[in-house]
Write a structure and sequence with these properties.
- The complex is a heterodimer of chains A (about 270) and B (about 260).
- With about 270 residues, chain A is mainly α.
- Chain A has two domains: about 1-50; about 60-265, Orthogonal Bundle (MetI-like fold), CATH 1.10.3720.
- Chain A is about 85% helix and about 0% strand.
- Chain A has helices at about 1-45, 50-55, 55-70, 70-105, 105-120, 130-135, 140-165, 165-175, 180-215, 225-230, 235-265.
- The radius of gyration of chain A is 25 Å and the shape is flat.
- Chain B starts with a strand and ends with a helix.
- Chain B is globular.
- In chain B, β9 and β10 (about 215-220) form a beta hairpin.
- Chain B is α/β, with parallel strands linked by helices and about 260 residues long.
- Chain B folds into two domains: about 5-75 and about 155-255, Rossmann fold; about 85-150, no CATH class.
- In chain B, strands 6-7-8-3-9-10 form a six-stranded mixed sheet, with helices on both faces. In chain B, strands 2-1-4-5 form a four-stranded antiparallel sheet, with helices on one face.
- Chain B is built from nine helices and ten strands.
- In chain B, about 40% of the residues are buried.
- The chains are: A mainly alpha (about 270), B alpha/beta (about 260).
- At the A-B interface, α8 and α9 of A face β6 and α2 of B.
- The structure holds adenosine-5'-triphosphate and magnesium ion.
- Adenosine-5'-triphosphate binds near residues 22, 42, 43, 45 and 211 of chain B.
């Protein structure tokens, strides 16, 4: 009884230490945040940095409020988010599908191997102008940018994971007379879920790159457009505000994927 | 007509840089309900032989007949248990033990009930909705056995099923597996490194020579020991005599190389 009490006490203490440590981490994170913005504001006001180029937090916030009020921010944000999510999903799904086809036919995968290597090492955004000419200067070509940037790497990573599944699992299924399709659905795909999810995480970032570059090239809407427009008219407050919004939403998207990861793979591994 | 016939089995593996003959000229018959073991030095082709018997790989030469039919047409009659459990970590224990029935499209409520019953007999009731990683090694091995038996195979193949377990768990599982197989009247083939295990569990023991594996010697376990459970057999006095005999033969095999 006494022993138990003591252990309980120790456990409480241990938890307390954890909580305290976490508080300190949060504290310093907040300090960095405040210092950064306060420093930025001060430096700008005292003209230590060129306020025309680097703007200041207060100006950015004012502009943000104005853009929210006239509703134009939501319009731009809506476009960019839609394009990014679409590019991200299409890229991941098609990439995984391509991986499945490669797994299905080892012969095809041998044949395609050098082409995949070439496509993968190519900087995909360089294809932008061609895409725009081929598809037209509209939302579709921007989604295409968000897609191609992640599709090949997804295919390669997921295919590698498909091939890496322990052959003994396949042997187990084979002893039950499983077809190739059954083998894929029961072992290959679920065993590769963790890899697919981590590909998702990478693809979030990649799709943002593709979409923003796409908007640089063609769009008259979207956050990428706001950046390039702000640059052209030398309104860096606009550029910085767009960057801030992108940072926030890219992070939210990443967190969502992480949440999905926790839901999906809590049991495997 | 013997239950299982192996006729002049040869097998050679080809890779780009090597040619490995794993088995040569294996001919033997196994009767229904018999429990036989294969003993042999590492790399002599035991796993290869089991894969051939299970119809998973085709021998470069020779045939395997199960009830007079070639085994590659009888996959569903053979249950194969690997050295480790290889339970699917993303499936619950129940899903794991029913996977065979599901794949063969023979999953009926009665069969499901039967499989769950078997799980209970193996002392695993209450673990149906747990995941494999929540079970100990011995429990997982038992669950893997249930998965193999759930499809009611006529022939059970066991490739060093207990080698990854601690000694005590292993002895207990030997008894459990033995009793289960006897009560269902199953024919079984066991590969093991453990001479004692072979004697305690089998009716007949085959010694294989080093690679390329061929039949070197075979032992019949006396009826006296066969009546006993593996644990009791290990404590019997004739046990150590046979152990000595087999030990000597294995020594011969090693010395001959
Ligand atoms: N897929 C393969 N390709 C080429 N060679 C192989 C292959 N599988 C096995 N071998 C070779 O065939 C021989 C027999 O292998 P096998 O796995 O059947 O031996 P084993 O008796 O089961 O060994 P152990 O007791 O270590 O399990 C070994 O020399 C091995 O290297
Ligand atoms: Mg082996």
């Amino acid at each position: 009884m006494k022993q138990e009490l003591k252990i309980n006490l120790l456990h409480q203490k241990y938890i307390q230490t954890l909580i305290r440590r976490k508080r300190w981490v949060r504290f310093y994170q907040a300090v960095i945040f405040l210092l950064f913005f306060a420093g930025w504001e001060t430096a700008s006001r005292l003209s230590w940095i060129d306020p025309l180029v680097f703007s200041s937090p207060s100006k950015v916030l004012n502009l943000l409020a104005a853009k929210i009020q006239d509703g134009s921010l939501f319009m731009h944000l809506g476009y960019t988010l839609f394009e990014t999510v679409a590019g991200f999903m299409i890229g991941t799904v098609l990439g995984t599908l391509l991986a499945a086809i490669l797994w299905w036919s080892p012969f095809l995968s041998k044949v395609l191997d050098p082409y995949l290597v070439i496509l993968n090492s190519m900087p995909k955004v360089a294809l932008g102008p061609i895409l725009i000419v081929a598809i037209g200067p509209n939302v579709s070509s921007i989604i295409a940018m968000g897609t191609i940037i992640s599709i090949i790497i997804t295919a390669i990573v997921v295919y590698t994971s498909f091939k890496g599944v322990d052959p003994n699992y396949l042997k187990v299924l084979q002893t039950f007379g499983a077809t190739k399709r059954q083998t894929f659905m029961e072992a290959i795909l679920p065993a590769s879920f963790p890899t697919i999810i981590s590909a998702l995480k990478v693809n979030v970032g990649l799709s943002w790159v593709g979409v923003i570059v796409g908007e640089f090239l063609v769009s008259s809407k979207g956050l990428g457009y706001l950046i390039i427009y702000g640059f052209q008219v030398f309104n860096f407050t606009l550029v910085l505000m767009s960057l801030l919004v992108i940072a926030v939403f890219a992070t939210i998207m990443y967190q969502l994927v992480e949440f999905l990861e926790k839901k999906l793979i809590k049991n495997s591994g | 007509m013997p239950f299982l016939q192996l006729k002049n089995i040869h097998h050679t593996y080809f890779t780009k840089s090597s040619v490995t003959t794993a088995l040569s000229g294996i001919t033997l018959d196994i009767e229904e309900g018999e429990f036989v073991s294969f003993l042999g030095p590492s790399g002599c082709g035991k796993t290869t032989l089991l894969s051939i018997i299970a119809g998973l790989i085709r021998p470069t030469e020779g045939t395997v007949l199960l009830e007079n039919l070639p085994v590659d047409k009888a996959v569903n009659k053979i249950g194969y248990m690997l050295q480790q459990d290889y339970l699917f970590p993303w499936k619950t224990i129940e899903e794991n033990i029913l996977i065979g029935l599901k794949l063969m499209k023979t999953l009926t409520p009665e069969k499901r009930q039967k499989a769950l019953k078997l799980l209970e007999q193996m002392g695993l009731s209450g673990f149906e909705s747990k995941y494999p990683k929540q079970l100990s090694g011995g429990m997982r091995q038992r669950a893997a056995l249930v998965r193999t038996l759930a499809v009611e195979p006529k022939l059970l193949i066991l490739d060093e099923p207990f080698s990854a377990l601690d000694h005590q768990t292993k002895l207990r599982l030997e008894d459990l597996v033995y009793a289960t197989l006897k009560s269902y009247g199953k024919t079984a083939i066991l590969v093991t490194h453990d001479i004692g295990e072979a004697i305690a569990m089998s009716d007949r023991i085959f010694l294989l020579s080093p690679r390329p594996g061929s039949l070197y010697h075979s032992f019949k376990v006396p009826g006296l020991l066969r009546e006993l459970s593996p644990f009791e057999a290990r404590n019997h006095q004739t046990f150590s005599e046979i152990f000595q005999d087999i030990w000597k033969e294995l020594d011969h095999i090693e010395a001959g190389t």
